[in-house]
Amino acid sequence: MSLPTRFVKMAGGGNDFLLFEADGRSLSEEDRRRVARLCRRGLSVGADGALFLSGGDEGRIHLDYFNADGGLASFCANGTRCAARYAVLRRLVAGSSPVLETGWAVIPAVVADGEVTLKLPPFPLPAEPVPILGENLPPTGIPIEVGVPHLVVFVTGDLEELPIKHLAPPLRRHPAFPDGANVNFVKVTGPHSIAVRTYERGVEGETLACGSGVVASAIVAARQGFVAPPVVCVTKSGVAFTVAFVERGGAVVEASLTGDAREIFEAELNEEAFT
């Protein structure tokens, strides 16, 4: 297929996306390259990734997510929240509780005005710590999978001044992660609160927020005894998310992510957006 020319720009907590009503399963390699060109900041529309919505089974919404480099990813929490709000605003589903088919799992959502909550499926507890290197970083980071792989690193100094641009790339390619990982730098700020900065694979840079990253960070922080759920997670954008969860039977269950999702504009692409 060729990409549609109409799209909507959406953002969730600072993650921004291009949203198309089309079946992402039909994208050709050239379409993926064109997605990557659209996501370039300054030269084109600019985004952290692209969302493709199409009809799913049993009244669900099928969602395909492509990173800014054009690569297909199994899950993007903030993208899924934006897709849920779009589906409700455009009446693609009845009511305010759409169910989305993602590459990770079927995920229910609840849309309340500009706020969206995802109800995540059960997933494994964090893995054993792995050794890491980096100036002013601890000797280990903690892996966890929340639809996609994450590495959580706790810092005690000034999180805002941390040179993530230099520290994160080697960790993103840590040998413990054959397909790479998102890297979350976390500062504990209270008994129910953390601050998080995330370097995302596929974007190959720091983003203003990462939904699965704050879920990963909150769960690891709780497992370390630093916080107790629900956990308020403040991201680089300044937008806060709330993460709730329960640990049961050796897994994370009843996990949810709540935060804002906004529609910014609707537009039509010109061919020069791809050059």
List the helices and strands and how they pair.
Layout (H helix, E strand, L loop, with lengths): L5 E7 L2 E7 L7 H10 L10 E7 L5 E7 L4 E2 L3 H13 L9 E3 L4 E7 L2 E5 L3 E2 L5 E2 L8 E6 L3 E6 L9 H9 L9 E9 L2 E8 L4 E3 L3 H13 L7 E4 L5 E9 L2 E10 L1 E7 L7
Parallel strand pairs: 2-3, 4-6, 12-13, 14-16
Antiparallel strand pairs: 1-2, 1-19, 3-4, 4-5, 6-7, 7-8, 8-18, 9-18, 10-11, 11-12, 13-14, 14-15, 16-17, 17-18
Mean pLDDT comes to: 96
The first-level CATH class name of the largest domain: Alpha Beta
Query: Strand tally, please?
Result: 19
- Which CATH architecture of the largest domain is right? Roll
How many whole angstroms does the radius of gyration measure? 18 Å
CATH superfamily of the largest domain: Diaminopimelate Epimerase, Chain A, domain 1
Profile the largest sheet: 19 strands, mixed
Describe the overall structure:
- The relative contact order is 0.17.
- 16% of the residues lie in helices and 40% in strands.
- It has a 19-stranded mixed β-sheet that branches.
- It has 2 domains: 6-115 and 261-274, Diaminopimelate Epimerase, Chain A, domain 1 (Roll), CATH 3.10.310.10; 126-249, Diaminopimelate Epimerase, Chain A, domain 1 (Roll).
- The chain has 4 helices and 19 strands.
- By secondary structure, the protein is of the alpha+beta class.
Q: What descriptors fit this protein?
A:
275 residues; Diaminopimelate Epimerase, Chain A, domain 1; 19-stranded mixed sheet; single chain; alpha+beta
